[in-house]
Amino acid sequence: MNKILLACLLVLAPVSLASADLKIAVVDLSKAFDAYYKTKEDSAVLNDKFATFKKEDQDKKADFQRMQDEAKKLYDAANDATLSSAARDDKKKAFDAKNQDLITLKNNIQEMETERVKELQEEQLRRRGEIVAVIVKAVSDYSGPQGYDLVIDKGSLSVAGGTPTFLYNSSKLIDITPDIITLLNKSAPASGSATPAPATGAETTTPATPPAH
Q1: Domain residue limits at 170
Q2: 107 falls within a domain
Q3: What is the distance between the terminal CA atoms of the chain, rounded to a whole angstrom?
């Protein structure tokens, strides 16, 4: 259900909720997301992929710089009055060819950066969506047998302004976040076998756009 619609229903129908004697719990999906071992694994995978891309990008830029240095030498030679006219013409032809290679390489680097950053961003979104789906299913599978009629994400933010959707929840409401985290991590690998990832979770996996040439 849309979060805004759900908030409106809770505000507009307090009598109905009370009379139905609903069993309500809260969960912090963001906290569960960060604590899920799969989130840390995905973060490590994406960080490795970005490091590989960054190394490839740096290598290509090093090639570009080397070719620029070679082109400058050819340009200087093509304008060297101490050389014969024929020699200068040869250097100019070599410079023109090298300059064309530079243009081609620059375009290739820019295309690679655009494509790889897009690929990494799309993979990050896909992995995040898969993890969120797993967490939502875990909440659903847990809540039914426990007799909960409604489970609210207490950490959710509104679409407009990014402010909390639910500004208050009573301490009487049961927070099932610890139980959900326990369920999610039941199949986690033995301690120390997984590649550690930064504590900030998925935020660290956002690929940074390489600097423009």
Answers
A1: 7-205
A2: yes
A3: 46
Amino acid at 1: M
Tell which phi-psi region holds residue 162, choosing left (phi > 0), alpha (psi between -120 and 50) or beta.
left
C-alpha 200/C-alpha 213 separation (Å) is 31
Hey, how many other C-beta atoms are within 10 angstroms of the C-beta on 84?
Answer: 9
Per the DSSP assignment, residues forming a β-bridge with 153 are 27
Do you know the residue count of the chain?
Answer: 213
Name the token pair of 118.
């897009």
Neighbours of 74 (CB within 10 A): 19
Q: What confidence tens digit (pLDDT) does each residue in 95-150 have?
A: 999 999 999 999 999 999 999 999 999 999 999 999 999 999 999 999 999 999 99
Query: Token pair of 157, please?
Result: 């933010």
pTM: 0.69
Q: 145-203: per-residue pLDDT in tens? A: 999 999 999 888 665 666 676 767 677 889 999 999 999 999 888 864 444 443 333 33
Read off the CATH number of the domain in which 82 is found. 3.30.910.20
* Residue in the structure block whose two tokens are 């120390």: 192
Phi and psi at residue 28, to the nearest 5°: -105, 95
Domain count of the fold of the chain: 1
CB within 8 A of 126, min separation 6: which ones? none
